[in-house]
Automatic annotation (TrEMBL):
Alphabetized Pfam families for the sequence: GUB_WAK_bind (PF13947)
Known pathway: Protein modification; protein ubiquitination
Membrane topology listed for this record: Single-pass membrane protein
Protein name per UniProt: RING-type E3 ubiquitin transferase
Transmembrane segments: 209-228
Enzyme Commission numbers on file: 2.3.2.27
Keywords from the named record: Membrane, Metal-binding, Signal, Transferase, Transmembrane, Transmembrane helix, Ubl conjugation pathway, Zinc, Zinc-finger
Domain Wall-associated receptor kinase galacturonan-binding, first and last residues per copy: 25-90
Example GO molecular function: zinc ion binding
A GO cellular-component term linked to this record: membrane
Entries under InterPro entries matching the protein: ATL20-22-like, WAK_GUB
Compartments reported by the entry: Membrane
C-alpha cells in the first residue's frame, strides 16, 4: 500500500509542475498575425522569469507589434520566428538595412547572422561614383554618397573608408530591400539546450494531453492496486493452507 501511495503522490507532483509551467510560460502573441512567442523567448511583464533564465531573449509587445531591442542599434521588428530552424526574421523600422550592418554588434548577444557572411567595405564619397557602383540611398545625401565595395578594391580619391563589415549575403544591388539579409539564429547556454530540445515541438502542454496522461496514470495505478491486492490475498491463502497442514 505504501508503494501505491508513493506512486500517487509522485504523479500529483508531476501534474503540479506541469500546471505551474503552463501557467507561467504559455505561448503568446503580440497580435493575431504576430509570431508565437515561447521558449527561449519571453515577454517582460507577461512571462515569468522561469521561462528563460539567461535573460537574453526578451521581446517587447508594443502597439500590437513584436520587437526586440539591441543596445548597439535599438529596436527592430520581429517578423517571424522559426523554432525548428532557429531563425529570427527581422525588419528594420528605419528601412535602412545598411545602418543595421554598420552598427549592430551581436558579440554580446546569443544571436548570430543566419546567412553566410562576406566582408564588404563601406565608402563615404564626396562625389558620385560611376554607375558600375550601386549607391546606398538610405545613407546618402546631397553632399555624401555611400557605397559598398569589395575590400580588395582601391579606395577612389573622392572617397574615404568608413568600415569593413561582414554582410550576411553575397553582395548584390538588391540592398534597398530592408528585409534582405536580416535573419538571425541563436545559441542557448548548455543548461537551456535540454529544455529547448524537449519543448521545440510543442512547448505548451494542452488539456487533451493532460487528460490522456491522466488516463494512462490512472490505469497504471489501478493495475498496481490490483496487483498489491492479489498478492496480499495470495499470501493470506498460503498462510491459511500452512496452518491447516500444521493442525491437521
Amino acid at each position: 500500500m505504501d508503494t501505491f501511495i508513493f506512486f500517487i503522490l509522485f504523479c500529483v507532483s508531476i501534474f503540479q509542475s506541469i500546471e505551474v509551467l503552463n501557467a507561467n510560460c504559455p505561448p503568446i502573441k503580440c497580435s493575431v498575425a504576430g509570431p508565437e512567442i515561447r521558449f527561449p523567448f519571453r515577454v517582460e511583464g507577461q512571462h515569468s522569469q522561469n521561462c528563460n533564465t539567461s535573460g537574453n531573449f526578451e521581446l517587447i509587445c508594443e502597439d500590437n507589434t513584436t520587437t526586440i531591442h539591441f543596445p548597439s542599434y535599438g529596436n527592430m521588428i520581429v517578423e517571424s520566428i522559426s523554432y525548428d530552424t532557429r531563425k529570427l526574421d527581422l525588419l528594420d523600422p528605419k528601412s535602412c538595412v545598411h545602418e543595421v550592418f554598420l552598427n549592430l554588434n551581436l558579440s554580446l548577444t546569443p544571436f548570430l547572422y543566419y546567412h553566410v557572411l562576406k566582408n564588404y567595405t563601406y565608402l563615404n564619397c564626396s562625389a558620385s561614383l560611376s554607375p558600375s557602383f550601386t549607391e546606398i540611398p538610405c545613407l546618402s545625401g546631397s553632399d555624401c554618397h555611400f557605397y559598398t565595395v569589395d575590400p580588395s578594391l582601391p579606395v577612389p580619391v573622392s572617397c574615404k573608408k568608413v568600415k569593413t563589415v561582414a554582410i550576411p549575403f553575397a553582395y548584390s544591388p538588391y540592398l534597398s530591400d530592408n528585409t534582405f539579409g536580416l535573419g538571425l539564429t541563436w545559441d542557448l547556454p548548455e543548461s537551456e539546450e535540454y529544455r529547448a530540445g524537449h519543448q521545440t515541438e510543442h512547448f505548451y502542454i494542452t488539456d487533451n494531453t493532460v487528460v490522456s496522461i491522466s488516463i494512462i496514470i490512472f490505469a497504471a495505478a489501478a493495475a498496481i492496486s490490483m496487483k498489491i491486492h492479489y498478492n496480499k490475498k495470495h499470501c493470506h491463502q498460503m498462510e491459511g493452507d500452512v496452518l491447516m497442514r500444521l493442525t491437521g
